[in-house]
Write a structure and sequence with these properties.
heterotrimer; A mainly alpha; B alpha/beta; C mainly alpha; B: alpha/beta; Rossmann fold; 2 domains; eight-stranded mixed beta sheet; 14 helices; globular; disordered N terminus; C: mainly alpha; ABC transporter involved in vitamin B12 uptake, BtuC; two-stranded antiparallel sheet; 11 helices; Branched-chain amino acid ABC transporter permease (chain A); membrane (chain A); ABC_transp_permease (chain A); transmembrane (chain A)
Chain lengths: 364, 439, 283
């Protein structure tokens, strides 16, 4: 399993696909007139503008779900860099989200004066430290051994909340109230919309950073590790260090995602950060399309919305209670299997192929 | 330049957002008054009620029955013509016992389904995540299905009305009963390692502090009690108080049977659903001396505290009524006390909706809650007014007898959650046909 | 001292179930280089089949036989119809597909049998400090590990299966029906998974009952070393004992953290598991 994503992932292209897109295609070069960080910021701005627009025409429920898409996307994008970039399959990404979420609730509980931006920076620092620890401990592991170790991390870490339940609230977790829209914007945005906006601002900045990293030297090094560790080492890539760095970046993104989740939902409990979450994140990543940040977007949309649509579907079918209750889970499973069966590159792969087919041949 | 402009704009927008987010993240201004003079979710012929329940996932096995029971009663009420001509539209959303999902489905219920009130939202960590939201939005939060003390706080959450006898009150009455009837005997506590355990011990210790020989806890994700039960045996605990959910009560009984240890079990209402326990334990009777009667060998003599009618009670009119209603409107064969939990809740919700009158608004519902003189189906006085939203105020004690019957060994008693005394009560219930809860 | 003995016996009994599941994971890993997340789902199908058969016939052992058969058939079917078309494309995709399968099967079981808990019998009496049912668990797992070792080491079938897994092209050229061997591997693995289910299921079963068992099963397989059936047994017992001691002496809230600690310690000393063969690093 040294190369779990397979070479096929290399085919993924598209505006956000710097992670895997071959940088030397003519199209790629024509876009390089702008320096990479600025170009990513441009995308970030467009994304933020789109979300703001969406928020203005929809209600509070959509705001909550858009925020969920945002923080899930950031977490998945971090995992993207780790799995799609460096080829390390982690089943414990939920653990980093949990670290971020608890850091946020603890900060708000004990240091309510700190602004949200400071909280987020602290969360990045804390989860990066956690990433160093985990990355260093697992750098020698490969394939299923890494998967097993990260899996037990996701299951074991919530145990801490029971051990220190005075401080971490035990199984009931910690509840916080976070500030909503600032006074002068009170009429423009509701609290939920404001929070969604804060989430997305953080998310687009985070994504721009991730995109810049993965199109830079570090990203190339990671991909060389994924493709062939031995060859990479011979070419002078510091194998261990690069692996740890990938873990640190992924865990910072995961932690930030978790922190934003706690900020929006106002709660952090062990029952939100179960094994199911970690597995869902990885499944959604592959489902959305590995090797591209667009894949993270489709993954996040799927995680947030598929269950809701499936529940509505189950209701409308008028089946027995047992069937109705379990249908959403079965539905997600079947969609997952079918998509991977017929579109190995996930939704993003399918969309790229569709786009290529629709585009008039002259522009190619 | 054409390309640069959006980039600059973007940076400016991002900076604005970050800069305005510079006030303390935890500094929350007090919200204004909520408007309760609304009839959200009420039409001429229907009332939309919502609930969040674990229908799938690890918590589903124990609690699925709550909403099944409630639904059966609402169907019954609707079949009788509803409430002031309105049919109850009971919408249950699955949160899989994950607070993050609870928040999502609660918003969905409030904003999309436009529920009139939240009824019986289940679980302490789950409901704890939405209680602020419901109160901020002015959605009446009727009868959360949990015994946490947090629901009874009219200062912070005026729209939340507790339901279950809270863990401390129940434990005080258990403690007193044990100290009176098993005086001088060694007592062991077995409890779930969260607020259930904490609040229960606070009550038990008021009466049993000198008798306790072992305090053992379990985590709901580790389904193994061998070490705990072995410790009870080692310390020679003669009475074991179990503040646990049914699966762990059953597990403790099995574990004790396997090492030949036979304490007097005292089980809290949350785990004392003997119908469920029978179902779980029936398979294991083949190794004991009571061959013919399922699970009797385990349950015989067990003491259970309770505040609702019990399905085992063939004398109780409400229990018989619930069996009939479930037989007609419910799904599945066996009716457990967990079904009765949901059914009792539903009857009381219907009752207060009826009292709120023809012109139903959230304010009239709250007024009705505050003014309601509760007369069952629960066997205990019920508090929903005057700054005390504590719900049921005490418990009665039953003992399980071989053959599946129960006997009340101590009548209903009430107490507070502090150090106050325990008193008998002469609470009178109305039978099903006299209670006004449907047209 | 009795406390210590009790904890030891208890740890061995639970460890046996982890070991059984770990064994089934090891076989599939050896056959297809996959970590099979659908393993608990296949065990679930087997156990619920046993529940139904025992309910109808009244015989535990008919149910037991039905469970092993169901596991065998389900494993073969999954390999043939779900995994094979995908495994060719990408291993990660195949792993995620087993995850999807887990969701589907858990949901289907919930649809058919409901999400409630059911009481589920042990194979033998559970009464006693070291009950017959625990002895059965240990003995059966030990026997299965021995049989597997013998199968791979001494029989032509085992040889072909290994060849098909490690050198599929060469195996094909020398006349081994590679596809059939893979299906056989999955069938055997799922049959052992069904046994794991029968050991770990009691006393109560519900659609999520094997989630935790699976986590410790995979942990056991990893610390034992994925190349060796005895590694799975050692890993399972190590996890079982470790968690039992810590629960007993320090408190059950530390049980999962203990498993994490064991994994960290073992893998930092031996990154390929306790019983892995020392291989020359390729670098």
């Amino acid at each position: 399993m040294s190369s779990p994503t397979g070479k096929s992932a290399e085919r993924a292209t598209g505006p956000g696909a710097h992670a895997a897109g071959s940088p030397d295609t003519p199209r790629g070069r024509s876009r390089r007139t702008l320096p990479s960080p600025l170009r990513h910021l441009l995308f970030a701005a467009l994304g933020l503008a789109a979300v703001t627009g969406l928020l203005l025409v929809t209600g509070d429920l959509t705001a909550l779900r858009l925020a969920a898409v945002g923080y899930t996307m950031l977490a998945v994008a971090g995992l993207q860099l780790l799995v799609g970039g460096s080829g390390q399959v982690s089943l414990g990404h939920g653990a980093f989200m949990m670290i971020g979420a608890y850091t946020m609730t603890l900060l708000v509980l004990h240091q309510p004066m700190l602004p949200i931006a400071a909280n987020l920076l602290i969360i990045v620092a804390v989860s990066a430290v956690a990433g160093i620890a985990v990355g260093a401990a697992t750098a020698r592991l490969h394939g299923p051994y890494l998967a097993g170790a990260t899996l037990i991390l996701a299951v074991g870490l919530p145990g801490l909340t029971h051990r220190y339940h005075e401080f971490l609230g035990g199984s009931n977790g910690l509840n916080i109230r976070t500030a909503g829209a600032p006074p002068f914007l009170q009429g423009v945005f509701t609290d939920s919309e404001w929070k969604a906006l804060v989430v997305w601002t953080t998310v687009v900045i985070g994504l721009a950073v991730l995109a810049t990293i993965s199109s830079g030297r570090l990203g190339r090094r990671m991909r060389s590790l994924r493709d062939d560790e031995t060859a990479a080492a011979m070419a002078g890539v510091p194998v261990g260090k690069t692996k740890v760095v990938a873990f640190v970046i992924a865990s910072a993104a995961g932690g930030l995602g978790g922190g934003l989740q706690a900020y929006v939902l106002g709660t952090a409990t062990p029952s939100s950060f179960t094994l199911v979450l970690s597995l869902t994140l990885l499944a959604a990543l592959v489902f959305g399309g590995i090797g591209s940040l667009w894949g993270a977007l489709w993954a996040a949309v799927t995680v947030v919305y598929l269950q809701i649509w499936a529940t509505d579907l189950a209701r409308s079918l008028e089946l027995g209670r047992n069937v109705e209750n379990n249908l959403p889970v079965v539905f997600f499973g079947i969609v997952l299997i079918l998509v991977l069966r017929f579109w190995p590159l996930g939704l993003h792969g399918a969309l790229t192929r569709l786009g290529a087919r629709l585009r008039p041949p002259t522009t190619r | 330049m054409r390309r640069g402009t959006p980039g600059v704009l973007a940076a400016a927008l991002a900076l604005t957002v970050m800069a305005t987010a510079c006030t303390g993240a935890g500094e929350v201004a007090d919200g204004g008054e909520v408007d309760l003079d609304v009839s959200t979710g009420v039409t001429d012929d229907s009332i939309v009620l919502g609930s969040h329940q674990p229908l799938t996932g690890p918590a589903a096995p124990g609690y699925l029955a709550v909403s099944q029971g409630a639904r059966a009663v609402f169907d019954y009420v609707n079949a009788q013509g509803g409430i002031h001509g309105r049919q109850i539209d009971y919408r249950v959303e699955d949160d899989a016992y994950d607070p993050a999902q609870t928040i999502d489905v609660t918003r969905q219920l409030v904003l999309e389904d436009e529920i009139f009130a939240m009824v019986g939202g289940l679980g302490t960590p789950t409901h704890g995540g939405v209680i602020d939201y419901l109160n901020d939005e002015g959605v009446p939060d009727i009868f959360p299905s949990s015994g946490a003390l947090a629901w009874n706080n009219t200062e912070e959450h005026p729209l939340t009305y507790g339901w279950q006898t809270d863990y401390t009150k129940e434990a005080k009455i258990q403690g007193q009963y044990i100290s009176e009837n098993f005086s001088g005997q060694n007592v062991g506590y077995l409890y779930q390692n969260d607020d259930i355990g904490e609040d229960s011990q606070a009550g038990l210790d008021q009466y049993l502090a000198d008798e306790v020989v072992a305090r053992e806890h379990y985590e709901s994700e580790v389904s193994d009690l061998s070490a705990q039960v072995a410790e009870f045996e080692r310390t020679e605990a003669e009475v074991v108080v179990c503040s646990c959910i049914p699966a762990f009560v059953a597990l403790a009984m099995l574990e004790a049977a396997s090492i030949g240890y036979e304490p007097q079990w005292v089980i809290s209402s949350i785990g004392g659903d003997t119908a469920t326990l029978q179902g779980l334990l029936a398979e294991f009777t083949q190794d004991t001396d009571a061959e013919d009667v399922p699970a009797d060998a385990f349950l015989d003599g067990a003491l259970v505290t309770s505040y609702m009618p019990r399905v085992e009670d063939q004398e109780d009119e409400w229990a018989q009524f619930f069996l009939e209603v479930y037989g007609e409107y419910g799904e599945g064969e066996t009716v457990t006390n967990t079904h009765v939990f949901g059914m009792t809740q539903a009857v009381m919700v219907a009752q207060v909706l009826r009292s709120a009158g023809q012109d139903l608004t959230r304010q009239s519902l709250v007024d009705a809650m505050e003014a309601q003189e509760w007369q069952g189906p629960g066997l205990l006085p019920f508090s929903s007014s005057g700054g005390d939203h504590g719900g049921h105020q005490g418990v009665y004690v039953v003992q399980y007898r071989a053959g599946g019957t129960i006997e009340m060994v101590q009548g209903p008693r009430v107490t507070d959650r502090e150090g106050g005394g325990i008193e008998e009560t002469d609470f009178e219930r109305l039978p099903p046909e006299e209670l006004d809860f449907h047209d | 001292m009795t406390h210590f003995i009790n904890l030891t016996l208890n740890g061995l009994a639970t460890g046996a179930a982890y070991a059984a599941l770990a064994l089934s994971l090891v076989i599939i890993y050896q056959a297809t280089r996959l970590v099979n997340f659908a393993q608990p789902a296949l065990a679930l199908v087997a156990v619920y089949t046993a529940y139904t058969v025992t309910g109808i016939t009244g015989s535990y052992w008919l149910g037991f036989a039905a469970a092993l058969t169901a596991g065998l058939v389900a494993g073969a079917a999954v390999e043939r119809f779900v995994i094979r078309p995908i495994a060719r494309v990408s291993q990660l995709n195949a792993i995620i597909v087993t995850l999807g399968l887990l969701l589907v099967v858990q949901g289907l079981v919930g649809m058919v049998w409901g999400n409630e808990q059911h009481g589920f019998r042990y194979a033998f009496s559970y009464v006693g400090r070291f009950a017959p049912s625990s002895v059965f668990a240990l003995v059966s797992v030990g026997a299965v590990a021995l049989l597997l070792f013998a199968l791979y080491r001494f029989t032509p079938l085992g040889l072909r299966m290994r060849a098909a897994a490690f050198h599929p092209e060469a195996a094909r050229l020398s006349g081994v029906r590679v596809g059939l061997m893979l299906t056989a591997g999955w069938a055997i693995a799922s049959c052992i998974g069904a046994l794991a289910g029968m050991l770990a299921g009691p006393p109560f079963i519900s659609p999520n009952v094997f989630d935790v068992v699976f986590v410790y099963g995979i942990t056991a397989a990893v610390i034992g070393g994925l190349d060796n059936p005895f590694g799975a047994v050692v890993g399972g017992l190590l996890i079982g004992l470790g968690m039992s001691y810590v629960s007993g002496y320090a408190g059950p809230e530390l049980a999962t953290l203990t498993a994490l600690a064991i994994v960290v310690v073992v893998l930092s000393v031996r990154p390929d598991g306790i019983l892995s063969r020392p291989t020359a690093r390729k670098v």
